[in-house]
Amino acid sequence: MTAPMPISLHVNGEKVDAHVLPRLNLADFLREHLQLTGTHVGCEHGVCGACTVRVNDEIIRACLMLAVQAHGAAVQTIEGLSDSGEVSDLQAAFRDRNALQCGYCTPGMLMAAQDLLKQQSTPSRDKIREHLSGNYCRCTGYHAIIDAIEAVAKARRRPAP
Ligand code: FES
Ligand code: FES
């Protein structure tokens, strides 16, 4: 089937109606149709994690999901998490600890890190590594990323003054 199909979904809290080709993946839909270019595309076959987004509260690889499969779903991208302030502490920690260089992996890393910290408030370094094992970084060597996430986990546990 090659005719565009209608889809309706929520992206970062806003309703989106569109017509898309059935073969269009969600990453390309977000980037090219909605100009949400914070979702990066690296390998395009589910390996690198650069395209990680949240669909119905679960992180998924947007290069492996068709846009038509997101019909009716609630999608959140790094722009949504960033604008709401949900990951502002993670972003600051990544900056402070040099956990990004080129930044290509960073949106996916932040999505994965936030997913972990929502599930576990005291993840071990091994657990952080494991949770991020599907997100590749060609620049940092990963230690600084683990440091940043560990620091945020600790800070979030601290009672507010
Ligand atoms: S671009 Fe989707 S996992 Fe690499
Ligand atoms: S900062 Fe360059 S790929 Fe991770």
The helix-and-strand class reads: alpha+beta
Number of strands: 5
How far apart the termini lie comes to 59 Å
Tell me what portion of residues adopts beta-strand conformation. 15-25%
What is the string of helix and strand elements? EEHEEEHHHHH
Q: What sort of overall outline do the alpha carbons produce when their principal axes are compared? A: globular
Number of domain units: 2
Strand order of the largest sheet: 2-1-5-3-4
Mean pLDDT: 97
CATH topology of the largest domain: Ubiquitin-like (UB roll)
CATH architecture of the largest domain: Roll
Helicity, as a percent range: 25-40%
Detail the poorly predicted runs.
Answer: none
CATH class of the largest domain: Alpha Beta
Number of helices: 6
Main sheet attributes: strand count, strand direction, barrel closure? 5 strands, mixed
**CATH H-level homologous superfamily name of the largest domain:** Beta-grasp domain
What is the CA-atom radius of gyration, in angstroms? 16 Å
